[in-house]
Design brief:
Length: 258
């Protein structure tokens, strides 16, 4: 196998990636270890009881710190792995954007959350004892706890609609999907990355919606060869959720108190 050239004329030559699923496993482990440690640090600083502390019990800065712990594994590890062992995130994972990504991917993300997800849960609610509060109750509590001032609304919205989509897409539709694709092909890459995305959220009742979203995002990443569309899809999906929760949250009495 020829060694990658470093000359200017061959600067665009293909670099054979040496990263793979092991790097994805390392990223996943680091994400959850760092997030757990950040959570523990916040609990200690705030002198909170160590038992039965929920995410919604944290101050917003603590929630942001825990999110940064997740992003350390989900975002930083893929960037480092592709830079050190490949041609970089842009070339290896398709981390690039085009102007068109601001149009239909965003709209599709909103449509998935606003139309498809509610339709998906109609038969689930019809044939089980579950209801809307079971699906959105935790997220609604989270929004009500963190977004009670204009400044907090802005920070919370940025965390959910920008930070989370970028980090999760780089990891799941980038490092995970491409690692599986290189070994097993596009079909298994789509299935594997979608299932892992759904299961690793550890939210059973929300799993159907996560699987549908993950499948659509995976198809976009495979068909376009880029992460821009799936990231903007994710932004639209989460943004509609935040808007709905802010409007419906009892903290705001329907007015947002802005």
């Amino acid at each position: 196998m020829a060694e990658p050239s470093t000359t200017d004329s061959d600067s665009d030559a293909e670099v054979v990636p040496r990263w793979g699923f092991g790097d994805a496993l390392m990223g996943f482990a680091l994400a959850h270890v760092a997030s757990t440690l950040a959570f523990a640090v916040v609990v200690a600083i705030e002198s909170m009881p160590s038992e039965d502390v929920e995410v919604a019990d944290l101050p917003l800065w603590g929630f942001a710190l825990a999110q940064c712990g997740l992003w350390l594994g989900f975002f930083v590890v893929p960037l480092l792995a592709t830079r050190v062992k490949g041609g970089g995130a842009r070339r290896d994972l398709g981390l690039s954007f085009r102007r068109a990504d601001l149009g239909w991917p965003l709209a599709l993300g909103v449509a998935l959350q606003a139309v498809l997800v509610p339709l998906l849960y109609v038969p689930i609610f019809r044939f089980t004892s579950l209801g809307d509060d079971d699906v959105s109750g935790a997220a609604r509590d989270l929004t009500g706890a963190f977004a009670d001032t204009p400044a907090k609304i802005v920070l919370f919205t940025l965390l959910i609609t920008v930070g989370a989509p970028v980090a999760e897409e780089v990891f799941f539709r980038g490092l995970v999907l491409r690692s599986i694709e290189r070994r097993l092909g596009a079909g298994w890459a789509l299935i594997g990355s979608t299932v892992l995305f759904g299961l690793t959220h550890f939210q059973g009742i929300q799993l159907p919606a996560l699987l549908v979203f993950g499948g659509v995002a995976g198809v976009l990443a495979l068909r376009t060869g880029r992460l821009g569309p799936s990231i903007l899809l994710h932004v639209g999906f989460n943004a509609w959720t935040v808007v709905q929760l802010l409007v419906l949250s009892p903290t705001f009495d329907g007015t947002l108190n802005l």
